[in-house]
Amino acid sequence: MTHTSLFSRRAWSGIATLVVVLAALPLLNLFFADGHALHVPSYMVSLIGKFMCYALAALALDMVWGYAGILSLGHGVFFALGAYAHGMYLMRAIGRDGVYQSDLPDFMVFLDWKTYPWFWSATDSFWYCIALVVLVPGVLAFVFGFFAFRSRIKGVYFSIITQAMTYAFMLLFFRNNTGFGGNNGFTDFKRILGYSISAPGTKATLYLVTLAALAGSLVLCRWIVQSKLGRVLQAVRDSESRLMFIGYNPLWFKLFVWTLSAVLCGIAGALYVPQVGIINPSEMSPANSIEMVIWAAVGGRGTLVGPIIGAFTVNGLKSWFTGAFPNLWLFALGLIFILVTRYLPQGIAGLAARWRKEQA
Amino acid sequence: ADTIKVGILHSLSGTMAISETSLKDVALMTIDEINAKGGVLGKKLEAVVVDPASNWPLFAEKARGLIAQDKVSVVFGCWTSVSRKSVLPVFKELNSLLFYPVQYEGEELEKNVFYTGAAPNQQAIPAVQYLMSKEGGGAKRFVLLGTDYVYPRTTNKILRAYLKSKGVKDSDIDEVYTPFGHSDYQTIVANIKKFSAGGKTAVISTINGDSNVPFYKELGNAGLKATDVPVVAFSVGEEELRGVDTKPLLGHLAAWNYFESVKNPVNTEFIKKWKAYAVAKKLPNANTVVTNDPMEATYVGIHMWAQAVEKAKSTDTDKVIAAMAGQTFKAPSGFTLTMDPTNHHLHKPVFIGEIRPDGQFSVVWKTPGPVRANPWSPYIPGNEGKQKL
Amino acid sequence: MSANDGRVALEGLDTTHGAILYLEEITVMFDGFRALNKLSLDISVGELRCIIGPNGAGKTTMMDVITGKTRPTSGTAFFGQTMDLSRMTEYQIAHAGIGRKFQRPTIFEQHTVFENLELAMKTDKRVRPTLFARLSSEQHGKIAEILTLIRLNGNESRLAGLLSHGQKQWLEIGMLLMQEPQLILLDEPVAGMSDAETARTAELLNELRGKHSIMVVEHDMAFVTEIAQQGVVTVLHEGSVLAQGTMAQVQSDERVIEVYLGR
Amino acid sequence: MLRKLFLIVCLGLACKAYAGIDPALLAPLTGDDPDARVEAIVKIGALANADATRLLTALKNDALYATPDGHLYIVDDDNAYDPATGATGPLPEGLDGLMVNNRLRGAADDALSALKLFAPDRALRLAAATELQKSVTLAQAPLIEKALTAENDAEIRPMLQLVAATANLQSPDGAKRKAAVEALASSSNANLRPLLQAMQTDNPDGTHVEPDEGVRVAAAHTLAALDSRLARTEFIGNLFYGISLGSVLLLTALGLAITFGLMGIINMAHGELLMIGAYTTYMCQMGFRRFLPDALDWYLVAALPAAFIVTAAVGVALERTVIRWLYGRPLETLLATWGISLILMQSVRTIFGAQNVEVANPAWMSGGVTVLGSLVLAYNRIAIIVFAIFVVTGVWLILNKTRLGLFVRAVMQNRRMAGCVGVSTAKIDMMTFGLGSGIAGLGGVALSQLGNVGPDLGQGYIVDSFMVVVLGGVGQLAGTVIAALGLGEANKFLEPVAGAVLAKIAILIFIIIFIQKRPQGLFAMKGRSAE
Amino acid sequence: MLQVEKINQYYGSSHTLRGVSLELERGKCMALLGRNGVGKTTLLKCLMGVLPVSAGSVKLEGRDITRMAPHQRARAGIAYVPQGREIFARLTVEENLLMGLATHSGKKASTIKGEVYELFPVLKDMLHRRGGDLSGGQQQQLAIARALLAEPKLIILDEPTEGIQPSIIKDIGNVVRLLRQRGDMAILLCEQYFDFAHELADQFMVLSRGEVVASGAQATMNDPEVKRHLAV
Ligand SMILES: Nc1ncnc2c1ncn2[C@@H]1O[C@H](COP(=O)(O)OP(=O)(O)OP(=O)(O)O)[C@@H](O)[C@H]1O
Ligand SMILES: Nc1ncnc2c1ncn2[C@@H]1O[C@H](COP(=O)(O)OP(=O)(O)OP(=O)(O)O)[C@@H](O)[C@H]1O
Ligand SMILES: NC(N)=O
Ligand SMILES: [Mg+2]
Ligand SMILES: [Mg+2]
């Protein structure tokens, strides 16, 4: 029915509690020394920071997949482009502290480049790069989506061309001559806006910004899917042609959510790069994009919260398993994927919904 | 604690598992060996194995976990350059130690890293020198064939500069790249054949592991023999040849700092230990295991680190770094290797081997003694005077 | 292309010549098969036109042409004097004021009955207005009114996919009414309805008569007789018009009896 | 193979049990001086007798051993043959393999091929003539002339004439050079290009490299003729490479065309089914090595049914345990099969190790046939093309000409109704997935003959396979075939121009653009039935 | 022939069929009547096995088939013409007809009897067209033809006249009559078109909200009591 509030009161309080808890982690890390009962290891904080970026990407993917039924197997490219856009600034911010002590990033010195190529111009400005974070994935998605949706490419056909797109970008970025550091990508960042990138305070700030971005995006996405536009999107998913016969042009609706999703994904990438310390073309490999889909599916697509849970669960398990049983973890993870599909068709969020229903 | 923890950071799954898995096993064997002799500083070593799954950001995460959570004193690991680059900032930030056992493109020197594999001058340049020599066939034209990523690109840049300095014209050099996982070498082999019509040609291959088999198969089937167009590879060793039918490869070359076929008591012992270990631990295909260069480099690295800890009487990073300088170790390659006091690279001998039908290499050329590494290739402008930390 | 492209102004319909729809010499070929063969037909403003004809005569195909689903191989189709339907997309045509009920009920199965009606409602259907849309009480009223009319009140929050066949038929008619189109195309609206329901549908159509132009395809002769009244009934056969006239005339036409009604 | 060849040579060159080779000639071979060793080989070659042939062949094949005191033996299984005395005995103490490198091997090759020109066996002479085309020097000209006088074979003779002409290109005699250049007008040997081109150039002092005007003109002619022939060969070569790549793509995609195209399962484990097929091939090879070493060359014949059965069984097991719960939820199959893929890969890694395993081409699939002078069509490639044709035909027949095929298509379109007309849908689902998997297994056999066999084998093909199936139009067998061949050809014609990396990027962009034009793939379903 | 005893069916928590029982003899035709949404289709689906029943039993020739899968029921001799036709859209008309023979084997499985073409001449003309391309009425004819080819013991027809032109409705009526006269088949006909049902049925049953509210012999079908259950 028409929904008047974004979330139920219980959901609001749940989200608020989670945000507070998550926000507390880096502060506990900062203010309690190692060994104190309340100390949160910085390893933990950086891990959760990374997961939040993944969660944002999964949330973005869910907007197109879960609601508009557009399965993208190429969201890695938006994630990576956002990361590269921010990475350009971070590379410039290294200044003369690189191994070649040059104004240019090391890989350019190595390629005998004397000046920045055109697409690097003005990237020493933080705000310009932040604009690129939004613009580059956004414009790519808009142009790609415009032609694809106009040609009425749907279903697997669309999925496969998104895969082709990310694959092509990966190969392009692998080339040294493309100007993005080849397969080593960008790494060894030193500072951001003048602050040391490895300083605890900087890390905590990045973490909190990511948390804010994630929470903000969740609210934004929720607002969108609860609007009439959200219902149109679901109609696109279920019967696009019927929608046309009642006077909607699906092109613009799809393009809107597709572009929005790409931008959110780009922002996720931009937040990811300073926290993880590297961006390289393998983020654009088809398998990485498929993994994003997996996060959303495990969490429960079409639920917004589900993909966030999914990203945390899958990556959390992966982090734990790869350390705890390095030889067997793929069995465990694979089995979990199979069991989720078999027994939790709506993903983890579906489990919660079922549980709630049973309570009622 | 009564143990000293050491981290092992090699991919056990994903694309790099092919190469890295055996390094993990060698590391474990070496640690057992040291423990059997009483450990280090009277304590046993305890290995912490993790799987970064050929995923570069995961490498960084795992490195941080090993250092910060597991509190390891040192990490042995990485294979690809990008994995090393991704963990570097972590080691610097947390001031810990990484031993990197694989040949690489150079252009790097870090206080927190010890490089036990070859720098370009310890592998690539001697190989080309050999090819140009009369013994090596007196090659006049060169195909630089590689997988499209930084290691081949960099190596080839250095080689091109080197060849130019030897008077080879640009038109006599063909640089060709293929994507990762490329498996169709028909066109490239045909082009090599065409190119070789113009004079004695050699192929310098920096093709990454997985593409090598299809490349060599194509080469063999197209009738290009090593006597016509020799191929020298920098990433093909005994381990890679285990998965290849070597009949058509006879006579093609590889350049390394160690071959399993090198005959000396240390190596015999090393091979014996490894084979016994493989059987004891029931490794897959335990009866056919082989040793190779990065395995030797791993072995050497762990021993040197243990020696340095004994010398420093501490596992403290800075003290160990100081103690590493000038460490020596009698290596399976038959030489006593020295850790350079200033550049964190080993002095290593260079061998060039031809592939034998049994998948081993027969050494056809070697340096008289260990060679000092030049991580900053002099063939790259601007590198002069950068050879020290 | 601009965001506004194709959104033909609602006021633009020019019906000065009294006709709302002209089909001229429409031919549709499917791999050599002529589904429509130089079909010419026109419908006046406010007219209720019944179309009958054997299975496969091309009735549905004709509706496909009118709504932009199928492009004619040749011929022209005009909505009013000025709108060339063969150059417009499905949503442009819908927006211009042609609504259609399909032969097989097509509704949004994953949406509730209410949402189906809400989506169909006549309003600005561009992205931004949709994003910020809020139902006014007037619009609420309209939906409630239609719900009662199609007798799905009480079912409004059920998923449409769970309705029975006949209920889906009604929902689709409801959606059509929400659209407030000038020209309504109904493809077998009473198929699968009980006799009582059929009678109600006839009633409804008789009410709508004059307010909208309506084209009805049906095989239920009782129903057609009921709604055609003294109006024109067109008989299609093999892609073109076989006969045309009042129901009585048509029913006694030998050719129509031969190919369609049977003896 | 080589041993047989060697025996024939022996028999051919009059087996008058020669007293052996002069030890003085042999001595340098065990020494350290590379130049002396090469010289020794040339001298031994000049002996032109059976012993020389046997020795040089042994040298080439790493069968030459020496005792620490420098005595040479040819080792053949457990026997040591002394080339100096001709005596055969048990292996002496301390025998060690002679260090042979490419230079020595090359010298032995040259010496041998000149010798083989006189062998009675036609195949040997042909091989020798072919070999000589690659490298022939003026010094060898008299030898070739001599061989020519004795040669009557219709195929070898013209080849030898060309070889002679090539040798004579460097002749000091202008007339001879001109005759040679003219004779070479019909050659397709790319190695001639630099020589002919050199004749067109000037020395630094302004004089012509080729002093004779007539020779220069003739050389220009020959060069043009050669170039056009080479261009044609290259074109045909690209065509062949394209078909070959296309058939590989096809074989890898065909199983997916069934599991994904027909059944709608986004089968991310398809690659792993290919891999299992390849590992089955490996197991067959190992089995033959162990139990039927004499029939090793035929292990592939056993591998085909074995791979089909094993992968089909794996497929059936997967279908019964996982996939069957997911019909009608296609997107979720992606998640489940991804999990399956992880498990299968890790299983193989645990059982066989993370490294690649060795699968050798059988002898009859090694090497290739030379056509148009210089184009080598590899036997394994030809075999795979033929195999692809067989498999496609088979699949087509099953799907379109059998009742099973009809049921398969019906079930995939409307599972519920198929049940209502009496088709056991569960059985058909199982069989269809099994068939698709089995065909993937056959694809794996093919791949094992081209590239490496390792746990990650499938990962390299999964993306391409999906592209092929989708480009062709999901559920359209003919589309899959055309798409595979089209991509293969496009790739192989782009690659020489753009390089492998850019060619790959261009192909991906092409796919994106192509789908814009045909949003339902190459063989789109049209009309109402497509909805 | 067919005995249905007190079957109950639920969609989730909504009780759709409430203790429906019926009995049908060989050679007889039963008309199933009821307003929209009362559960007619649901009942037929339960008989075919497409939907499970939560209680009650279905017997065919004395054999309990309650737990059988649809394909087993088809093999036991039930043929089904579903509402909405459900032809195989991408198979040709001929292949669709061959699917009707799925329960047969041997030569019989590949011969489409000419009778169906006599009954539905249009199918013969369109043998190689894809089923999904046919017009709605043509598809309906195809679905009926497909069911007849199976030579079932019990044929279940869910609104077979929907979308069919009057002359062919008459033909279908004739066929049903013929089948009934042949006496080797039981016919369960769900129909909204009252006159059609009235003309063909031997007995009838009216459903309302999942319950049998009236049933009896054909003669009583026109009773106002019965009609009341059909009115809106
Ligand atoms: N895509 C197509 N390919 C081939 N033939 C088609 C296609 N679409 C429709 N037809 C044929 O065109 C003819 C007209 O079909 P149409 O659906 O318009 O008939 P109709 O008059 O609506 O029939 P009905 O009363 O049965 O609904 C039919 O014979 C049908 O088989
Ligand atoms: N899958 C389903 N889930 C839940 N409810 C359903 C489902 N299918 C049908 N229903 C409901 O069950 C009731 C009976 O539906 P059914 O299709 O059997 O009706 P019917 O008598 O055949 O009607 P009609 O004459 O319109 O075809 C209806 O109220 C319908 O809304
Ligand atoms: N360092 C390498 N071999 O990537
Ligand atoms: Mg119709
Ligand atoms: Mg019904």
UniProtKB/TrEMBL annotation, chain A:
Membrane topology: Multi-pass membrane protein
Transmembrane segments annotated in the record for this chain: 12-32, 38-57, 64-85, 125-149, 156-174, 204-225, 251-273, 293-312, 324-344
Cell membrane recorded as keyword: yes
CDD domains, alphabetized: TM_PBP1_LivM_like (cd06581)
Protein location: Cell membrane
Keywords of the record: Cell membrane, Membrane, Transmembrane, Transmembrane helix
UniProt keyword Ion transport, yes or no: no
Highest taxon, organism lineage: Bacteria
Chief site of localization: membrane
Annotated NCBIfam families: urea_trans_UrtC (TIGR03408)
PANTHER family: HIGH-AFFINITY BRANCHED-CHAIN AMINO ACID TRANSPORT SYSTEM PERMEASE, SLR1201 PROTEIN
Protein name: Urea ABC transporter permease subunit UrtC
Annotated organism of origin: Duganella aceris
Encoding gene per record: urtC
From TrEMBL, chain C:
Chain ranges of the ABC transporter domain: 21-263
Keyword match Chaperone: no
One Pfam assignment: ABC_tran
Signal peptide: none
Gene Ontology molecular functions: ATP binding
Keywords of this entry: ATP-binding, Nucleotide-binding, Transport
Listed InterPro entries: ABC_AA/LPS_Transport, ABC_transporter-like_ATP-bd, ABC_transptr_urea_ATP-bd_UrtD, BCA_ABC_TP_C, P-loop_NTPase
Bilayer-crossing regions: none
Keyword Transmembrane helix: no
NCBIfam families named in the record: urea_trans_UrtD
Alphabetized PANTHER family for the sequence: CONSERVED COMPONENT OF ABC TRANSPORTER FOR NATURAL AMINO ACIDS-RELATED, HIGH-AFFINITY BRANCHED-CHAIN AMINO ACID TRANSPORT ATP-BINDING PROTEIN
Record's protein name: Urea ABC transporter ATP-binding protein UrtD
Species whose genome carries this gene: Duganella aceris
TrEMBL record, chain D:
Places the protein is found: Cell membrane
CDD domains for this protein: TM_PBP1_LivH_like
Signal sequence interval, chain numbering: 1-19
InterPro entries (alphabetical): ABC_transp_permease (IPR001851), ABC_UrtB_bac (IPR017779), BCAA_transport_permease (IPR052157)
Keywords: Amino-acid transport, Cell membrane, Membrane, Signal, Transmembrane, Transmembrane helix, Transport
PANTHER family referenced in this protein's UniProt entry, alphabetically: ABC TRANSPORTER PERMEASE PROTEIN, BRANCHED-CHAIN AMINO ACID TRANSPORT SYSTEM PERMEASE PROTEIN LIVH
Protein name as annotated: Urea ABC transporter permease subunit UrtB
Species assigned in the record: Duganella aceris
Automatic annotation (TrEMBL), chain E:
Domain of life of the native organism: Bacteria
Matching InterPro entries: AAA+_ATPase, ABC_transporter-like_ATP-bd, ABC_transptr_urea_ATP-bd_UrtE, BCAA_Transport_ATP-bd_LivF, P-loop_NTPase
Keywords tagged on the record: Amino-acid transport, ATP-binding, Cell membrane, Membrane, Nucleotide-binding, Transport
Domain ABC transporter, residue spans: 2-232
Transmembrane region(s): none
Family label: Belongs to the ABC transporter superfamily.
Protein name: Urea ABC transporter ATP-binding subunit UrtE
Gene (name only): urtE
